[in-house]
Amino acid sequence: MATGKSTIGARIAAGVGVPFLDTDALLAQRSGKSIGELFASDGEARFREREAELVLPMLSDLSPRVIALGGGTVTMPRVRHALLERCTLVTLTAAPETVVARVSSLRKRPNLWALSPLDRARDLLSVRHSAYAESHALVATEGQTPKQIAERVIDVAGLDTLVMPLGTRSYVVELANDEPSRLAAALAELNPSSLLVVTDQNVVAARAQWLDAALEGVGVARHTVVIKAGEVSKTLATVARIWDEALLHGLDRDAVVLAFGGGVVGDLAGFAASTLLRGIRCVQVPTSLLAMVDSSVGGKTGFDHAAGKNLIGSFFQPNRVVVDVEHLSTLPKRERAAGLAEVVKIALVRSVDVLEQLEAAAEAIACGDRAALRSVVRSAIALKINLVRDDERENGSRALLNLGHTVGHALESQGEYTRLLHGEAVAIGTCVELAATERMGLSAPGLAARARLLFERLGLPTKASPDELGSAWPFVLSDKKRSVAGLKLPVVTTAGHGAVVRVTVEHLRRAVLLS
Question: How many domains, the chain?
Answer without folding.
Answer: 3
